[in-house]
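This entry is set out below.
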Amino acid sequence: MVENLSLFNAEAPKPKPAKARISLRDYQEEAVNAVLEGWTEHDSVMITVPTGGGKTIIASSLIGERLEHGRILFLAHREELLHQTVDKASMVLGDIDAGVVQADLDEHRAQIVVGSVQTLSRERRLERVLAYGDFATVIIDECHHATATTYRKIMDRMKAGKPGGPKLLGVTATPDRADKVGLMAVFEKIVYELGIFDLIDRGHLVDIVAKEIEIDGLDLSGVRTSRGDYVASDLSRALLENHTPEIVAKAMHELIPERKSIVFVPSVAMAEETAAAIREMGIKAGFVSGGTPKDERKQILEDLDSGALRAVVNVGVLTEGFDSPSVDAVVMAAPTKSRTKFVQCIGRGLRLNPGKEDCVVLDLTPNSRTHELQSVPTLFGLPPKDFKKKSLRQVVEQARMDIKAGKYTGDLKITDLGNLRKQRFHWVTLPNGWHALPSKDVTLILRYGGVTPMGVPGWEVWQVKGGQAERVREAVPLEYAQSGAEEELRNAGSHTSILVQEDAPWRSGPASEKQLSLCRNVGTVANRDKAGSTSLETDST
């Protein structure tokens, strides 16, 4: 039994040298190769990879490829993104000479400069960075912002993306802009594209369950629009007049009471009212906005991560640079016309986490739905009625069968309907909080312990085989540990075991007499109802 191995004891065996902390997923390698090939013909290229797909991991790998050519500048517009980039680059590349240039931080002599756009758009700060050596590569994170004057000022001074200047790469979750300003004025070619469903289908993001919150009397036709989206003050007024905070809180209590949720709203006033309404429904909730002190915001998000809070209402601060894989519900209480914003928001709940099967997305539905209003069905070009009882994967699977039968008539916006589906694995959470993936020949364990390159505790991957426990991956954040463990399972050839398959028929079918007998032998009472479903409880006798 695995439980008797020394892995579970206080004194674990001395580990053998571990493999690299982060290894690229298949599509990440595809993206890296596409960029390198694109740079042979173009000076500026762009890739689009969904939130949760590891854009920074891809960029970090490219940094490693380009360091021999000269210094690297990585541009971002949020403080959280700057420090995340340094942390993730360290996981991919090991010890690196990386420095942050932002406000009072001035590590401008580094080989890899991770810089704030707001800071480097100031001539004095940019010239200080450039004076220490030329740059061979410029990478822009969330590059749908790259048409802004601040970005253009930096790129023009450096001649980034121009003949003779540094190579330029833009990375984003979506190349769309609500204000219709074209990114192709900055980037010559999109060399790699991957959509949300592509990663769901490959097993790298969780499935989506879409539900609607109907708001009687809500009419958005009179709400002003600016730069392609609703004016926040007008939108907030319309929502508050229709008692949206109370309606949202009630829907969360009825539909997702046990889920860990983030709620998007258009104003601070609505955030305060919504958080209060959610708390009145018995759900522990907090709220953050741009005006929340940094230490307070950090504590609130840590409380969400730990489970001390079940919901956090936010005003535009969690759309970018926020990673909490355990979040499994997103409430869009800020209707939007912006596809970019919608994709970023729902992406916050799609990251993998052991035991997490899907993410519920709650959408507000006004009286008169317009084709401009974003929702899960419109995002993928699927009829809203199809989501009444099905998840996104199930809806698309039905569309696949209808297309094959020649009877599909919808407006599907998913480009590849081939049989891409990569197997999803069923993780088991152990009593000590670790996670196990048991198969016939080998068991992979995610063990909390060790220190990540960021200097904080992380999760190691251990392999139990033939009665021996061996660490095979060093400490990284949980979602990367899970991905690495699943890769180890595939490499070991054990991924076909029905013990690990998330959708194995035996999980949903009635328990066999042999399974029931096993339960009785280990002191567990198995009760089978008339429908054949089996529930387990500990035998207290």
Notes: Residues 2-19+423-495 form one domain. The chain has four domains: 2-19+423-495, 26-199, 205-380, 509-538. The first strand starts at residue 44 and ends at 48.
